[in-house]
Design goal:
By secondary structure, this protein is α/β, with parallel strands linked by helices. Helix content is 49%, strand content 13%. Helix 1 packs across helix 13, helix 4 packs parallel to helix 5 and helix 8 runs parallel beside helix 9. Bound molecules: flavin-adenine dinucleotide.
Length: 327
């Protein structure tokens, strides 16, 4: 129920606009590394100082006009340039819908191609994030077409799909991030039950650790992390074959602990004005994430995320355009 509410809120255009206007004063700064590149680089440097590398997401998605898609591409090219010039340990993550996938496949393909080429110039990896099921096939098509030209790209496999193992086998020779899956998907294609998703997740991780090129284990789930630690030890998986990944601002102590223990660790660092949808989806995944902003709620006189969420809930209920569900 709460998941549906937050997913609905993540698409509310009124609130998206308000969020852009009022910046991060709604509590999201805990999980978004700033609204501009300088702030993001500062956050990356802090993480790098702890031995943590980063994958940078210049927030944005579900763009429906060509100009916005090209602007998004230009901004991502600037991020790549900044990573190189400021010599930080980071690569990038991109979302195809931000780069025009909903407008025209070839527009998106060319945008991603330019990004991959620029990243290649600086020996940087580009992760093509996986969005909802309606974008699954075209996203894999992007990966297939571009991997003929570039070796520095990889993508994401979502464990909630019944046929996730087939995808994983197909992308065995890629750097793959394995996640549980963040979107609301129908039961004919995706597991709904947490236990089913978790057991498929473990199966995929184990398989790719043994047979794949490089595995990014992207989860905040300490049960799974502990399982993976035991598995890599038992099977002597080299440390250059995998990494743990978590989102910026989540389970910070655990992120630092894993890095201190010597595990390869990468934090997903989202930044930019378009943070609202990302933030709402994190609340959808785990409403307890509201705890993350509780401190600010009690410290600040400005608008609070709870107030906004409550108002948004009412608006969301009133707004018919909220009906279609999304990640
Ligand atoms: C780096 C990264 C990249 C991602 N990229 C994508 C993508 O491209 N496409 C996509 O669909 N999804 C993506 N996701 C989201 C992912 O699919 C999940 O929706 C999300 O990670 C939540 O699942 P989980 O495995 O973290 O743990 P959950 O199943 O949410 O939680 C499992 C357990 O872990 C513990 N836990 C979890 N979070 C916390 C917390 N904050 N504090 C304390 N305990 C906690 C709790 O005990 C909880 O019961 C990404 C996630 C990460 C971390």
């Amino acid at each position: 129920m709460l998941k549906d509410i937050f997913i609905g809120l993540s698409q509310n255009q009124l609130l998206i606009n308000a969020a852009k206007k009022y910046g991060l004063r709604l509590g999201a700064q805990t999980v978004v590394a700033g609204t501009n590149l300088d702030e993001a680089i500062r956050s990356i440097k802090e993480l790098n100082a702890h031995g943590i590398s980063c994958t940078v997401d210049n927030l944005g998605e579900f763009v429906f006009n060509e100009k916005e898609a090209r602007t998004a591409k230009e901004q991502i090219l600037e991020v790549i340039q900044a990573i190189h010039e400021r010599d930080v340990d980071a690569h990038i993550s991109i979302k195809p819908t931000q780069l025009g996938l909903n407008i025209d496949y070839n527009l998106c393909l060319n945008n991603v191609r330019e990004i991959a080429a620029k990243a290649k110039q600086y020996n940087l990896f580009v992760n093509i994030d996986m969005e909802d099921s309606s974008h699954l096939v075209p996203t894999f098509n992007l990966v297939d077409e571009l991997s003929v030209e570039f070796e520095n790209i990889g993508t994401v496999i979502q464990a909630y799909y019944h046929n996730a193992m087939e995808y994983l086998e197909k992308y065995q020779n890629y750097q793959i991030r394995i996640v549980k899956g963040a979107y609301k998907e129908p039961e004919d294609i995706a597991y709904q039950d947490k236990q089913d998703i978790d057991s498929n997740y473990i199966k995929l991780i184990e398989w790719h650790l043994l047979h794949g090129k490089f595995t990014s284990i992207a989860t905040h789930d300490h049960h799974i992390i502990n399982h993976v630690k035991r598995f890599v030890k038992k099977h002597r998986i080299p440390y250059d074959k995998f990494e743990f990944q978590m989102l910026y601002g989540f389970r910070k102590e655990l992120q630092l602990k894993l890095a201190e223990e010597g595990y390869p660790f990468c934090t997903y660092v989202p930044f930019g004005n378009d943070w609202y949808g990302y933030f709402m989806r994190r609340l959808a995944e785990r409403p307890q994430n509201l705890n993350l902003v509780a401190k600010q709620i009690f410290n600040k006189k400005t608008n609070t995320v709870l107030g906004v969420a409550a108002g948004a809930f009412i608006l969301g209920r009133m707004t018919k355009s909220n009906k279609k569900k999304r990640k």
